[in-house]
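Message: I would value a second opinion on how I read folds in token form. Give me a protein, with the fold worked out from its sequence. Write it directly below this note and I will take it from there.
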Amino acid sequence: MTEPEDSWAGNYFNYFTEVEEHFQRVRGTSLFLLSPLDWALIESWKSGGVPLTAVLRGIDAAFEKWRGRKSRTQMVNSLAFCAQAVLTEAQIMAGAGQTEPRQPA
């Protein structure tokens, strides 16, 4: 049985919306717009099968690391800043078969 086209489209756009809103929330700027390159990065994660949970965790991890720096002279202006952390989270989830949040170490 196939899903209706509208259901697929809703899930597809939900992935993008969730990533955008989470990035804005963690960055602390609701008026920040993602660039076309950021949208392409989200598309690559979506089409590559990276779970939304891994993307959101990766964003959180990247910002935690950035906030832990002694010198934060530059703002995070691109989702690309979070790319490595997102891939790390995806690998962790794939290796552990995990879909629930990890407990902090």
Observations:
- The chain is about 60% helix and 0% strand.
- The helical segments are 5-27, 36-47, 52-67, 83-96.
- Confidence is low (pLDDT under 50) at residues 1-8.
- The CA atoms of residues 61 and 105 lie 13 Å apart.
